Amino acid sequence: MGKRNHRRDNLEELSLSRLMDTEILYSFLHRNPHLKSLSLNNCFFEKIEPLKEDTEIENLGVVPNLRSLKLIDLPNMKEIGFEDIILERLEFLILQNCPCMITIAPSVSFTRLRNLEVVNCDGLQSLMSASTAKSLVELNTIKVVKCESLKEIIVRKDGEKSDKVVFQQLKALELVSLKNLKSFCVSDCDFEFPSLEKLVVSACYNMDKFSAKDPSSPILQNIHVVHGKENKRFCWEGGINATIKQIIQEKVCNYV
User: Fold this and answer.
1) Coil, strand or helix: which one is 101?
2) Rounded to 5 degrees, what are φ and ψ at 147?
């Protein structure tokens, strides 16, 4: 009864804005169990979570068919929250202008995620843990732009083994205007990018290497470089680390 009487089984896309808490959000989600795309804009909660007294969420999650999640202009959000089982089914995740975000999802396996875009999330110091990165077996694109506090994309947390991380399907990686980024991963991890075709490094002035060990990228033939207002260009020195080193050396020489 109640919420279940107002289900809209045909609605696949939903956009909500200016929500103060998640009570109304979950009311909509309960009534639209077949949503495939959810966009939240200008909302004021810290994370997406059901009310404690809410007992209607089933084991498969409140919206088991959700494939796309867009979180835009959420000034108070610290982490996504939501049910792990829902996040694990996502294929598209976009985060924009979430300045208080400190973690995307601490321990979720994004086994179906194909596209990840993170823009203007200044509270993030890293994007994900090494263990989460290992789960990204379907990831096709990563785009990270203007996250001021970001120091590394992948962080190896205490207790995590320095096992090899393979981005099997990743074709495009864009790192743009990340002024405090030191490297893709500061710790001693092995990375493989067997499908990587496009790597963009633009205005990442503190980046002196990609990773501690030169990653494997057999298909990649160049790095797309943009610094400040200079023209776009392509560079390649036989490997990702060597190319980034050359880019930095050229930049230093230009200032001498």
Assistant:
1) coil
2) -110, 100
